[in-house]
Every structure is written in structure tokens, then in C-alpha cells.
Amino acid sequence: MSEFTGFVHLGFRHIVSLDALDHILFLLALAAIYQGRDWKGSLWVISAFTVGHSITLAMAATGTLLIPQRLTEFLIPLTIVATGLHNILTRGRGAGIAFRYRPLFAGVFGLVHGAGFGGYLQQLFLGSVVGPLFGFNLGIELGQIVVLAAAGAALMGLDRLLSVARVRAPTLSPFGLRVVTVSLVVVAVATGMAVARRPW
After folding, report:
1. Alpha-carbon distance 97 to 75, whole Å?
2. Share of residues in the chain with pLDDT > 70 (%)
3. Looking at residue 170, what DSSP letter applies?
4. Which distant-in-sequence residues (6+ apart) come within 8 Å of 133 by Cβ?
5. What pLDDT score does 76 carry?
6. CB of 52 within 8 A of CB of 111?
7. Are 115 and 72 within 8 A, CB to CB?
8. Domain ranges of the chain
9. What's the whole-model pTM score?
């Protein structure tokens, strides 16, 4: 296995393993408000997140950006909580300024996640950073595709279950109920992570 392939594999495993639960939860929070017909909107959001984390991944991995790892690890679950709360407030409705600017929020939060990736990757460099950095980033993107595909399938299954069971809430459609339920679970788990990682 070449060094490049090794870093692709490392990046892929880093995003799909349970050790990356925080990043998986963030992707789930991003995906929670989308249905199959909304693929264009979700593509913009995921692309913005990719651009954001690619920037700080490169900066952190090369030592250009120096952020204490404890602070980064604390901020990551806060981005998950913020995304989940946004989902709950909008309930998946594509309306309002906050919803239209969701790609911008995803890009900014991606900057935080990239710093976390970079701190991990910096410890592994032995020589040139270009090949390993590109390979690791490619592996992360491939891992994200797998995670999002699994999340999409799970969300579609949940939609079908709610439809078949004819679950209703007083003020929520079945889709709104799905968005709120998934987001509440994500927010609860991420809040626990933030408390456990608090830097004080």
C-alpha cells in the first residue's frame, strides 16, 4: 500500500469509526432536515462544510493555524448542538433567513471540524505534507459520502415508519416530527460531549 493510499484509508476510517461519533452526529444533524427531493439544498450545505473543513484541515496540519486541541474538541459538539437547535426551530421548513444561510453556517462550522482533523493528522507527518494531506482529505470525503448515504437511508426508513404507523403530533407533520425527534437525540448526545470536554 502506498503512502497516499494509506492516508486515504486513514481518513476514511477516521470519519466512519465510532471514535468520530462527533463528526457523524454533525453530518446527521445536517441531513436531518432534508428529504430525497431536497438533494440540491443538501448538496450546497455539504459542499460548504467540505470547503470549510478542508481549509482549516490544511492550515492545522501544516502548523499555520494553532488552536489548542482541547478548545477544538469542545467547540465541535457545540456546532452539533447549534445545528440541531436550528433544525428544531425551523422544523425542516425551508423558510426564513437562517434556513437560506444554512450553507454559510455549515461552512463556518466546517472550519471548526477541520481544525480537529488537522490536529490529529499533524502527529502523523514524517516528510512532505501535500500527498498525505490530499489523501487524508479524500478519505474523509469518501467517509462522509458513506455516512450521509447511511443517514439518508435511515431517515427514509424513519419517514416510512412514521407514515405506516400514522404517528401524528398536534403541531407537527410526520416530517416535522422526524426532524425534531432526530435533532433532539443529536442535541442531547452532543450536549453530553460538550460537558465532558469543557476546557475548564
Report:
1. 24
2. 88
3. T
4. 7, 57, 58, 61, 62, 121
5. 95
6. yes
7. yes
8. 3-197
9. 0.87
Instruction: Tell me if 122 sits within 8 A of 65, measured CB to CB.
Output: no
C-alpha cell at position 7? 492516508
DSSP-derived secondary structure letter, 172: B
d(CA 159, CA 166): 10
What average pLDDT does this structure show over 170-195?
89
Q: Are 55 and 113 in contact (CB under 8 A)?
A: no
How far from chain centre, in Å, is Cα 49?
Answer: 8
C-alpha cell at 141: 470525503
Measured CA to CA, the distance from residue 149 to residue 106 in angstroms comes to 18
Question: Could you tell me the three cell numbers for 90?
Answer: 425551523
Alpha-helical runs (H) found in 17-68: 21-31, 39-61
Question: Cell 488537522 belongs to which residue?
Answer: 118
